[in-house]
Predict the structure of Aminotransferase class I/II-fold pyridoxal phosphate-dependent enzyme.
Amino acid sequence: MIDLRSDTITRPTPEMLEAMTQAEVGDDVFETDPTVNKFQQKMADLFGMEAGLFVPSGTMGNQLSLHLLTKPGDEVIIDETGHVFNYESGAAAHLSSIQLRPLKGDRGKLNRKLIEPAIRPKNDWDPHTRVIAIENTTNKGGGAYYKKNELIEIHKLADEHHLSVHLDGARIWNAMTASGIQPEFFSTIADTISICFSKGLGAPVGSMILSSKDRIKKARRIRKMWGGGMRQIGLLAEAADFAVENHWPLLDDDHKRAKEFSEAISKNPAFKIDLSTVDTNIVLFDVVGETADKAIQKFSDQGIVFVPFGPKTIRATFHFQVDDEDLKKVLKVVEEYS
Ligand SMILES: *Cc1c(COP(=O)(O)O)cnc(C)c1O
């Protein structure tokens, strides 16, 4: 089976598992796991932030970040396709008593023109606009990434209005690969960043939030309160470190395969795709004559799996465990599809 449902399905490689067995571990609730301590600082340094905190999921990373940046009743501006808005079980309302203000952006991306009118005036009856939450790359937005000047513009707007910026960087690795932006740049445009090791990088578990020392200290306590205090997680930090070192460089190939795949899709009249929307490892395309579910079933009968992303829309996500050999097979099925 060739699994293009998501880049979260990647499994640990034998080399990664071997690295994990060598990890020196301790109890991280006591802050005595040397491997996780070292890795948190390594990631903080990489992104130009003061400190980092390993968390079990991207959802916890996003929710902890918003919790740190807001007070109950505050409002967070976000694109309507945002992960925080769609895929986190309503956590922002439940855990932080905040509300989200979804805006209709461009493939999941926000800009000054959209955000500025949504910033509330300062009347007693207005919620306090407190945070701009952006996603890079966008997931439901189809893998779009921000250019440097777009991020600078959002940060400038946030500064003018005394707002914080949270960056959901679940796929920041893909964004950096596609845009050429260096990691330390992101600390200049965001107050909190969450990054994931378990998407295209292929670690079995793990995300991290990056911010100031002060915020990360508070985040440790909230993480414990929310049941995310973990013990010998040097094992997981080692896997994540291995993923950053060895799998980050492979993302460019995923992007190339996504391009090749989308070109084949564009040549078959059974499908519709806007090739200019294929930026990274995620491909969204439509089926013309039938439903997405039907088309997915037909592909699945030939050993290729996708996920539906709307009644007529399918998402294909490329990752390093789909190689050129697999791609060849997929291209053949796409060509012969009718
Ligand atoms: C996957 C993802 C997350 C985090 O998901 P978890 O399953 O909680 O690790 C956050 N943001 C985006 C954009 C994602 O794609």
User: Anything to note?
Assistant: The pocket of pyridoxal-5'-phosphate is lined by residues 57-59, 62, 83, 135, 139, 168, 170, 196, 199, 207 (CB under 6 Å). The chain has two domains: 2-6+250-336, 14-246.
